[in-house]
């Protein structure tokens, strides 16, 4: 059918036939001659020039170039060819035309492409430059991000068998080739065992090297082959700017590695440690989605360098609300260095317990009220007075710290911020309000007691 339709179409579109008048309008038209070789050549296609049948047909038509006819439509021409005087020549011509039609149809089917695919265009995937940079950043830094499982020991009430159950999970990242992994302290808190899963899904038991509850940072160690460990590039957080693009990689809700993007929406924020309540200064605020499971994962800049550890979100529902916080890498760098070298952080302390800020505000004073100052601590040795009750049960307020080294102290956060800038062994001048009098007391700072 395709071949006959093609032949019919070619005949109707022939310029020779279309230019001639209709037979019904000129019944007495004299006989004219039409070159058959020219009409056949209208059906030739580039793909059929090498056909032996067409070569034979062309040779045959060269000997007999003129054929009379009375009509100009293809059916009449076919009848004329069949009523020629030479029966053998007429049959041969018909056979040649049939073979030509079949050859043309076959050549079209062989040379042509699939009709369906001819209209489907699938250009190669093209990405914008910023998309390519994001894809490359994720692919290069994913091997450095690990998945941490927190296991707790439980005892069966009936059989008394002890077994481990997962009680939490989080993210972390490879710090060096020695197998150190950095994460948040609250990710590993209360764990009897820890397991670290690398990017290639290989799992290793992890040991706690050390942790800093006040800054919510912990360091683990895994005995993994060095070729499986990919340390993350360490950046700088001191020169960050609001509006700078950032990327967070982690395992939210226990899913595989996930990338979220955003910008730095605030700097020098302050949050409280989930373990001790001690404030963490200079925290990075970002709108990159941080959900449960992202804790301990890295926050990267556009170059793929670490600028912070994702640690908390501000959300009543527990899901990302567009306000996430990361501990700056400059703070993390010093903490990790001490944990790797000594297994603990030697942070200076005054050795006191102080009242909540709301209680001091109710008294109508500004400062830090000393509730307890152990005698073996730095403040107790220096002579700071704690809050106590007299023989009649009346409350006697202790010293109220108003400044340290001339820097005003309005609340507990101010005191912590000043102490974070000091070192163990430094002598500081503590100004206190004792009754109605102000006194200045020198205190030698001591390291924080060991934590278990």
From TrEMBL:
Residues 339-436 form the PDZ domain. Transmembrane segments: none annotated. Keywords: Chloroplast, Hydrolase, Plastid, Protease, Serine protease, Transit peptide. Signal peptide: none annotated. This is PDZ domain-containing protein. One of its GO terms (cellular component) is chloroplast thylakoid. Gene3D superfamilies: 2.30.42.10, Trypsin-like serine proteases (2.40.10.10). GO terms for biological process: photosystem II repair; proteolysis. It holds the Pfam family PDZ_2. Belongs to the peptidase S1C family. The keyword Chloroplast applies. It is found in: Plastid, Chloroplast. GO terms for molecular function: serine-type endopeptidase activity. InterPro entries: Chloro_Bact_Ser_Proteases, DEGP1/8_PDZ_dom, PDZ, PDZ_sf, Peptidase_S1_PA, Peptidase_S1_PA_chymotrypsin, Peptidase_S1C.
